[in-house]
Each structure stands twice: as C-alpha cells, then as structure tokens.
Write a structure and sequence with these properties.
This protein has a single domain (about 1-120), classed as 60s Ribosomal Protein L30, Chain: A (2-Layer Sandwich). Helix content is about 10%, strand content about 70%. It is built from one helix and eight strands; from the N terminus they run E-E-H-E-E-E-E-E-E. The chain has one helix at about 20-30, and strands at about 1-5, 10-15, 35-55, 60-80, 85-95, 100-120, 125-130, 135-139. The strands form two sheets. Strands 1, 2, 3, 4, 5 and 6 form a six-stranded antiparallel sheet that branches. It has a two-stranded antiparallel sheet with strand order 7-8. Strand 4 (about 60-80) and strand 5 (about 85-95) form a beta hairpin. The chain is flat and about 45 Å long.
Amino acid sequence: MEFKKIGSKYVVRLEKGEEVVESIKALCEKEEIKLGTITGIGAVNKAVIGLFETSTKEYHSKELTGDMEITSLLGNISQMDGEVYLHLHITLADHNYNVHGGHLTSAVISATGEIIIDTIEGVVDREFDEEVGLNLFKF
C-alpha cells in the first residue's frame, strides 16, 4: 500500500495481493483516523460479501472468485470499543458483466485498488442494538 495525504483526504493505492478491509483498517490505525468516509474502485479476484436478513438478524455470506472489477466501494469509518470500525459495501462486476453487491467482509486485490478516505474531525462510536441486530452509530 502506498498513500498520500492531501488536506483531510488520503489517496491510497492498494497493491496486488493486499486484502482491502485489513489494509484500510491498518491505515486508519496508523494514521489515527477515527471518523470518515471511504470510496474506491479497482480489481479483485476474491471477495466475501454479505446480506443482512432483518427477520433473523443474521448475515448470509457468499464467496466470489475470478476476475472482478470494483465498480463501487463505499463506506464509513467510526469507532467501537476504542477500535477502528469499518462499514463497507461493494459492487463487483464479473467477466459476464453480472453485478454482485453487498456488505464487504473481505476482498483481495488482483491488479490495483484506488481508495479515497475523507476524514472528518471528531469521533462517532457504535453500539449493538438488540432490536435491529446491528452495530449502530451511537451519538
């Protein structure tokens, strides 16, 4: 990973073989980024995405393999129990131009990843909400 900080933004290049979520989290920890937004594009060859089923309060995950373009990576950075908390969603297009999307658990870069992190001054925590079954913003 290489990055450049410009004002409140980080321009990040992920390298072939790097795992997206781990890499972004490591950068946030190193640079003490506690709150912000994430956008990105690039290419991966393996990803695990999920869908939250509200009736059962469970995530259902699916592993995807093969050449895929990241047509959109969106998310936010917050804190939970004093740790970096990433909430990321991804849309991936495969070789047949079929699109798959959902909550991003992990993805491995196959060519490059171009990520922009826009930091926000302040801290927003999260806490588990029993009724919803998710870790929600806590204000």
